[in-house]
């Protein structure tokens, strides 16, 4: 069944520092997803707390906020069928000891909190996260060949 969705994906500060933006974006393009918005952002503390609101109160929350604000990120909106679930498969498990080879984290990450990329975990999270980083006019609607999955 086709469920066209949008998700918020973000190369975290460690991915930017390690020069992995291009390779991470390539993997998402290779999968067949459609990029509809992207920008380089220095995340503010307020924006970080909103982004990770579901983790507020957990012991790792302060570290998470300081990590995500420690340097620029590459924030993106991607579109595709069932992309929220599928992109998390491409990203791989949170814990680097569980992330399988062939996934972004499995191939490039070796330290759990610094796991290179964020992906929304539900349609509600995606909507909130996209709104936290992008104005609607920054998201570009355009035709892209559907031949890879038609
Ligand atoms: P993300 O939200 O960044 O895409 O990662 P995720 O869904 O795979 O993992 P989530 O449970 O949402 O956790 C968010 C991020 O918090 C850091 N974390 N640290 N116990 C810990 O120290 C711990 N647990 C999670 C990771 O950077 C994780 O990606
Ligand atoms: Mg998460």
Automatic annotation (TrEMBL):
Catalyses which reaction(s): a 2'-deoxyribonucleoside 5'-diphosphate + ATP = a 2'-deoxyribonucleoside 5'-triphosphate + ADP; a ribonucleoside 5'-diphosphate + ATP = a ribonucleoside 5'-triphosphate + ADP; dZDP + ATP = dZTP + ADP
A GO-annotated cellular component: cytoplasm
GO biological process: CTP biosynthetic process; GTP biosynthetic process; UTP biosynthetic process
Record flagged with keyword Repeat: no
Source domain of life: Bacteria
EC number: 2.7.4.6
Cofactor(s), names only, from the UniProt record: Mg(2+)
Subcellular location: Cytoplasm
EC class: transferase
Active site: 118
Gene3D superfamilies: Nucleoside diphosphate kinase-like domain
Description of how the protein assembles with itself and partners: Homotetramer.
Family: Belongs to the NDK family.
Protein name according to UniProt: Nucleoside diphosphate kinase
Name of the gene this protein is made from: ndk
